[in-house]
């Protein structure tokens, strides 16, 4: 099996919908194959030898930064970490100027940013691939790892009910929703009024659903989303950049906490997922995240294997 997808060479990955359905399926298959190779001892693969990835980070990071840096090294390339506060961007240099400079130094850029518009503008002016390592709208790298994790434990999305609880406008949920819609799965989003997914993302998910037969539902009652669920998923209620809204968000989202009462409605063999970091006692209780049904550490590990699949395909 090839360790890359030829059609992705040199392309941007800003939204999960930048992929075709077939490319998404192939990235998932390659990620799982790379994980098998990793555990069979094939950890260093000389696929993108000499390639350099610049990492522009406006936000703190553990999983995204480490998975991308390790992935580059295991594929034979290297990376340069660039805190936005250390770049001239912090002193007012236009995004388009930074883009046109970096394209002459490196082979690709992964950016973790506050504003999705940063990625759009950067990609418009840079002639090298731009990868979304998180924005306020989407987190495609996380969605890939999420789907791989679900398939590891549930084998298929067919007949599987995924319940997401909390902020329906969450960046991780946006990408997960698109991926589930593209692959024909079933997702229930339990969220309060005013926290629904962004209209453009929702419309796109509905378009995919009509093509694949996926079911995406928005519900107010968390029990409805948890009932007979195979996957229980949540994310933080207050993301970086939303601190001023913290009090209101915590109050509004409190009824959607994942706790022992909520998971009692799920299937006995449900898996609990969280993209991390978790605010224990807010969106999830400690006993749930530490339970035997929790797969969050495997989910986090899968960020490495999916990153390798993406980087091998785009930078090769």
Report what the structure shows.
The protein is of the alpha/beta class and 316 residues long. The protein is 42% helix and 14% strand. The protein is built from 12 helices and 9 strands. It has a 5-stranded parallel beta sheet with strand order 7-6-5-8-9. Strand 3 (108-112), helix 4 (116-125) and strand 4 form a beta-alpha-beta unit. The two termini are 16 Å apart. The model has no long low-confidence stretch (mean pLDDT 97).
Task: Provide the fold topology.
Layout: H1 21-39, E1 52-57, H2 63-74, E2 78-83, H3 95-102, E3 108-112, H4 116-125, E4 130-132, H5 140-154, E5 161-165, H6 171-183, E6 186-190, H7 199-212, E7 215-219, H8 222-226, E8 231-234, H9 246-253, H10 260-263, E9 271-274, H11 286-289, H12 296-315
Parallel strand pairs: 1-2, 1-3, 3-4, 5-6, 5-8, 6-7, 8-9
Helix pairs in contact: 1-5, 1-12, 2-12, 3-4, 5-6, 5-12, 6-7
């Amino acid at each position: 099996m090839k360790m890359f997808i030829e059609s992705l060479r040199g392309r941007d990955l800003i939204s999960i919908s930048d992929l075709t359905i077939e490319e998404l399926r192939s990235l998932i298959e390659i990620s799982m194959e790379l994980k098998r190779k990793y555990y069979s001892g094939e950890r260093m693969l000389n696929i993108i030898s000499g390639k350099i990835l610049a990492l522009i980070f406006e936000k703190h990071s553990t999983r995204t930064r480490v998975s991308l840096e390790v992935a580059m090294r295991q594929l034979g390339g290297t990376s340069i970490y660039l805190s936005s506060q250390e770049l001239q961007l912090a002193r007012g240099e236009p995004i388009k100027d930074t883009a046109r400079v970096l394209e002459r130094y490196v082979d690709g850029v992964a950016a973790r940013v506050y504003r999705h518009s940063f990625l759009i503008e950067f990609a418009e002016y840079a002639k090298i691939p731009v990868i979304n390592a998180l924005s306020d709208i989407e987190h495609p790298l996380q969605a890939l790892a999420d789907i791989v994790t679900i398939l590891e434990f549930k084998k298929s999305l067919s007949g599987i009910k995924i319940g997401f609880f909390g902020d329906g406008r969450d960046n991780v949920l946006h990408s997960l929703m698109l991926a589930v819609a593209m692959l024909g799965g079933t997702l229930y989003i339990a969220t309060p009024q005013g926290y629904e997914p962004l209209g453009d993302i929702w419309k796109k998910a509905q378009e995919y659903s009509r093509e694949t037969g996926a079911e995406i539902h928005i519900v107010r009652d968390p029990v409805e989303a948890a009932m007979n669920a195979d996957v229980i998923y949540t994310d933080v209620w207050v993301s970086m950049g939303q601190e001023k809204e913290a009090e209101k968000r915590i109050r509004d989202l409190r009824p959607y906490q994942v706790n022992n009462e909520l998971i009692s409605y799920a299937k006995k063999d449900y898996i609990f997922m969280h993209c991390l970091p978790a605010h224990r006692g807010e969106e999830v209780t400690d006993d749930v995240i530490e339970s035997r049904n929790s797969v969050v550490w495997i989910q986090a590990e899968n960020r490495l294997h999916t990153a390798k699949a993406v980087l091998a395909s785009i930078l090769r």
